[in-house]
Specification:
Elements (H helix, E strand, L loop, with lengths): L3 E2 L2 E4 L3 H10 L5 E4 L16 E2 L6 H19 L13 E6 L13 E3 L1 H7 L8 E7 L3 E2 L2 H14 L3 E3 L4 E7 L2 E6 L2 E5 L1 E4 L5 H7 L8 E10 L16 E4 L5 E5 L2 E5 L4 E2 L9 H15 L6 E11 L6 E4 L6 E5 L5 H17 L9 H7 L23
Parallel strand pairs: 1-12, 2-3, 2-13, 3-9, 5-15, 13-21
Antiparallel strand pairs: 4-8, 5-7, 6-7, 10-11, 11-12, 14-17, 14-18, 14-19, 15-16, 16-17, 20-21
Helix pairs in contact: 1-4, 1-7, 2-7
Length: about 400
């Protein structure tokens, strides 16, 4: 069978690959390859979906700021509206007797226990030492992003090939030729946006892996406590962390979503929550709030993926012609997707970088940082816990 020719092959149809495919489809014909039957099946469909400008490393915050401008433009142009019009906010709670470090960052302010109780009535003043409040964080409509990017890709002539696992890839004469399911495809550029499987895809392509590590994050839904007269409805509560970021909870579809903020290294797979992790989340919630959880109605898990230095990897691999990385978003993939895909497109085309993303940041995120002779990346635990 003669391979079908494209300008770009993108492997992985999570929100990273989907947004990148839509972005580079302005430059040429794109095939988006996805092993599952539907895009955004794994981590992109299992996140807390919060757009937090002031959360994460400086690089993540820069990408988030650039993404906000691009998402606002997408809404103004009638493409899709991803950001909720009203802020939900993020609350970091120091329980009574807390002795750790809790200095506010540039986007936070310290508030009193009484103010906390107005925001989240189950956090009574007697149980709280103090809190940090970021009132700018908003919900993200991941489904709207998914549909909007998929529509844009198709309008520009791109294809989404679902149910097609990548089983072969080779590079000859300046072209990548791959087998994905029953399809044979060819293009001068391949983009590895395979999430937790990014190193496996690289290896299949004959490219040295970067040491990208999948880590499991678990969550569960519980019934919210009964509302009392005069209390703010549960649906309007902010996302709540304990100060050490070992627990978060937030409203979700009329219930409360809990997470123990686990980050357990695991092989890439369609993962599920472990009973122990859910029990830990429930215990931490009960200790922080004084509430008793009667029933867990549902639980799940997803995989976030991290490079050895904890930062995203976006750009061309200097050791493999025509091979680009878009990986290791570390749980921030949804909120940085617009800027990350714009940066990737600029890298591929050689055009100007997106606003607020300078050459220094682009170089810092490039996979070249792991390819320098004698350079060894030091794996570190990510400084942030939110799966946005």
């Amino acid at each position: 069978m003669t391979p079908e020719d494209f300008d770009f092959l993108i492997v992985g149809a999570g929100i990273a690959g989907l947004s990148a495919a839509a972005e580079v489809s302005a430059l040429g014909r794109v095939a988006l390859i996805e092993r599952e039957q539907t895009p955004c099946y794994h981590s992109s469909g299992r996140s807390a979906a919060m757009f937090a400008r002031h959360y994460g490393s400086p690089a993540i915050q820069a990408l988030t700021g650039a993404s906000q401008r691009l998402l606002d433009k997408a809404a103004a142009d009638g493409m899709f509206e991803a950001l909720a019009p009203a802020a939900r906010g993020i609350l970091f709670v120091a329980p009574a007797g807390y002795s750790g470090d809790s200095e506010p960052n540039a986007g936070q302010r310290r508030i009193t226990p009484a103010e906390v109780s107005e925001l989240v009535p189950i956090l009574t003043a007697a149980r709280i030492d103090h809190c940090l409040w970021d009132d700018s964080a908003r919900d993200i409509d991941v489904h709207a992003m998914h549909l909007g990017y998929a529509r844009l890709l198709r309008e520009r002539g791109g294809q989404i090939l679902t149910g097609g696992e990548l089983t072969h890839a080779s590079h000859t004469g300046g072209m990548w030729e791959v087998t994905a399911g029953a399809a044979r495809l060819r293009a001068p550029v391949i983009v590895n946006a395979a999430g937790a499987w990014a190193d496996e895809v690289a290896t299949l392509c004959g490219v040295a892996p970067l040491g990208i590590e999948p880590r499991r994050r678990s969550a569960a839904l519980i019934d919210p406590p009964a509302a009392e007269d005069g209390n703010a409805p549960v649906s309007g509560w902010p996302l709540v962390f304990d100060m050490d970021q070992t627990l978060y909870f937030k409203p979700e579809g009329g219930k409360l979503m809990l997470s123990p903020v686990d980050a357990t290294p695991v092989p890439p797979h369609d993962c599920w929550a472990e009973d122990l992790d859910i029990a830990i989340a429930v215990d931490r919630f009960e200790r922080l709030t004084g509430q008793t959880v009667q029933r867990v109605s549902h639980n799940w898990a997803g995989l976030r993926n991290f490079a050895p230095d904890g930062e995203p990897v976006i750009g061309a691999d200097p050791s493999a012609p025509g091979f680009w990385w878009l990986a290791a978003q570390g749980g921030s993939g949804i909120k940085i997707a617009a800027a990350a895909s714009a940066l990737l497109a600029a890298s591929v085309s050689g055009e100007a970088l997106p606003e607020s993303i300078g050459s220094e940041l682009a170089a810092a995120l490039s996979p070249a940082r792991f390819r320098a002779e004698g350079q060894q990346a030091t794996r570190k635990t990510p400084a942030t816990a939110l799966e946005s």
